[in-house]
Write a structure and sequence with these properties.
It is a single chain. The protein is of the alpha+beta class and about 475 residues long. About 40% of the residues lie in helices and about 25% in strands. The protein contains 13 helices and 18 strands. The strands form 4 sheets. Strands 3-2-1-6-5-4 form a 6-stranded antiparallel β-sheet, sandwiched between helices. Strand 7 and strand 8 form a beta hairpin. The longest helix is centred in the middle third of the chain and has 31 residues.
Length: about 475
Amino acid sequence: MTVSNRLDQLVELTGNISNAFTIALYKADLDKKILVLRHHISLSSNFNAEAKINFGDSPVGTVAQSRTPFLEEHYEKKPPELCIYNKKEDLKSFLAMPVVHKNLEGVLVIDSKESFSFPVKQQKIIAGLASQMAWELDQEKKEALFDSPTGFIFRDLISYSRFIAESPSKNKAIEKLANIPLSILTCDAYAIIWFGSNEVGKTLKFKGFNKTDANIPVRLGKGLAGSCAKNQCPVLLSDTEGRDTVIFGGKEAKEGSFLSLMAAPVSFNKQLYGVMVCGSKTAGSFSNLELDSLTLMTYSAGFSIFCMETKEQWNYNKNLDQIVGIPNHRFLTQHGDALEKDLLKNGKSVCFLSLKINNLPKLYSSFGIKHGDLLQRGIASTISSILPSPKYIFKFSETIYIVILVDQKWSEAQPFKIKLEKILNNTPLFVEGEPMQICAELGMSCFPDNGKTISQLIGASLHETASEFFSKTTTTL
């Protein structure tokens, strides 16, 4: 894959995970002090692709001049006119980030028609992607033109690298690395080693190497594969004649077995995923040309896996409550069917407990956002410590928590409900030394007596909460 294609995909990936109205990467001309559009995606018919932005002009040009990010999370009034549009758009949030390698390479612009579209976690992800864009822009300046006669030699390599980068899963990317066309790379043996969180590599696929040798655990810094992994840098041994060579972690390769060896990391954005090792029985079979080809393909595999993991992480984060960090209503909506199949089975007892904090808005108003957020985390912690496991805890709405108590009958769960209700209503929670007294209502329902679906059971528990509250209010009156 060419630098151009990789750069375009990075911009498109960033636009997808940020749910942008417009995302645009501007390339910096340091001599002329202007920004010129490099690549963009926009939902606006008024986007001005021909616009050139002077350093210092508008928020975008100011970022280029100062090299510091600009963020506006909520335009209370109409947003300022931006030269990137021919007409003013009703934007609510705007992010401009400098794209810097050794020098300023450009400015990344993302906007949205929704307020507060760029939470802190997302800004960190975008900053990492912008850093990679900066490196790609720097490489683009150095890349030789591929319309030269030499360029045609790399046609198959470019095509196959893109094929790897577009892999839909890790297994597909590994499979493609294991089947590199002979027109691109010829070798007598290969091994693809994958690294887990324990920093020990395991061979997933291999051919040509001795089975026992290939299954030796690879440790960072040990042998050819381990050194490549530790430094995340390709390694070439073009001629090993006359010496034993450590490939996987021990003196497994006998003298003369493989006279030419090379290894390239499967990595992206400083994240190591694995290493691919190639061996040839002929000395001098691998040169810098073959090493560069292998490195480009393993880099493409790393890029593919990084994109998959980023999308998975972003989808996961969208299903977590931003304050408490537990699954939210969206999670229940998306995974409710799977939970029902797993939990609501004939012969099983499952209880649903709902907890509503009636005075939460008042506590936020009295103590402030920081204390209110810390209070909610304290409530979630209290729920987790009081109620028995196994259980699932969800933030159902701004003021309601739902807990699913697995393998619990009504008679078994009722004492825990009463205990939690007394603790929350009778004892204030201290947040940074401030006592905060909550007013909580709890309701409960059980499967299958009160419902046969998650929706019915949650509704039944909330109905009991409302009934108890109405009963208490009537009694008081």
